[in-house]
Write a structure and sequence with these properties.
Elements (H helix, E strand, L loop, with lengths): L12 H8 L7 H13 L3 H21 L5 E5 L9 H8 L4 E6 L2 H5 L1 H4 L7 E6 L5 H5 L12 E5 L8 H13 L6 E7 L6 H12 L10 H6 L4 E3 L5 E2 L20 E8 L1
Parallel strand pairs: 1-2, 1-4, 2-3, 4-5
Antiparallel strand pairs: 5-8, 6-8, 7-8
């Protein structure tokens, strides 16, 4: 896909997320979509920042404590501060990272994503989580005989079908060796007040939202057969929080489940 195929009149999750994070790589349709969603879920921008902070803490754990040196980040979105490769390569410069996304604007910014340490390497694949085998067929720089950190942060909730999402995630996890880890977040309405949940449900019903939340039981299904890393499945802001962080959102403000788990 090339930048010529970019439709600036249609909102895209990666660009909307970029808007919520204060980035400049978005268009009027993305900002309009972001503002509409923020009306039904006023803490959307806080949640976006909390989700990014979770990603950074989780990747730091994988590189520092779990000793991983390979990462597959699916649904990476547009580059911003402390991308997966930056966090991992600060700890282990030899780390190799494959980014996967299907937004043409991410492709246009691939050069920023592909900046690596001399010791390590990064690649970008323009593929979709819905086609896991296509992703697996293109992982030339990753050695699948060695553990891999699979990053699926704020991506499965764009798949309405739980069965399709589970199948795609399972296909990727099954292809990875023992010692690999799954890092995942997903939007949820479990923490919301009845009024906020009703607003979210109405946004989905009317097509203003494309974010399909998962309840805890549904989120747990993605980790079947894996060994959850302490503290298990939590609100993202409560997963190994940084005591020095300036922002500590509540579960209502950052209504996403997050977890890290090891493949046995």
């Amino acid at each position: 896909m090339t930048i010529d195929r970019l439709d600036t009149g249609v909102a895209h999750p990666a660009r909307r997320y970029n808007y919520w994070l204060g980035g400049k790589d978005n268009f009027a349709a993305d900002r309009e979509s972001g503002d509409l969603l923020a009306k039904s879920y006023p803490a959307a921008r806080i949640a976006a920042r909390a989700n990014r902070a979770f990603l950074q803490r989780a990747v730091g754990y994988l590189a520092r404590e779990a000793g991983l040196r390979q990462f597959l980040d699916v649904g990476t979105g547009l580059p911003t501060a402390d991308n997966t490769h930056e966090v991992a390569q600060r700890i282990a410069p030899e780390s190799r990272i494959v980014y996967v996304d299907h937004d043409p604007m991410v492709m246009a910014h691939a050069r920023a994503l592909l900046t690596s340490t001399p010791e390590g390497e990064t690649r970008y694949l323009e593929e979709d989580l819905r086609e896991p085998q296509r992703i697996l067929d293109s992982l030339e720089i990753l050695d699948l005989s060695q553990p891999v950190g699979l990053i699926l942060v704020a991506v499965v909730h764009f798949m309405p079908s739980q069965d399709e999402a589970r199948s795609a995630v399972r296909a990727l996890v099954d292809a990875l060796p023992s010692g690999s880890h799954l890092v995942m977040t997903s939007a949820t309405t479990d923490f919301l007040t009845p009024a906020l949940k009703a607003n979210w449900d109405e946004s989905l019903r009317t097509g203003r939202s494309d974010v399909h939340p998962r309840g805890r039981a549904e989120f747990e299904q993605f980790f079947e057969g894996l060994d959850l890393v302490d503290p298990g499945i939590t609100a993202i802001s409560q997963w190994r929080p940084d005591p020095a962080a300036e922002e500590r959102p509540t579960p209502v403000e950052a209504s996403l489940f997050g977890a890290v788990a090891r493949k046995l």
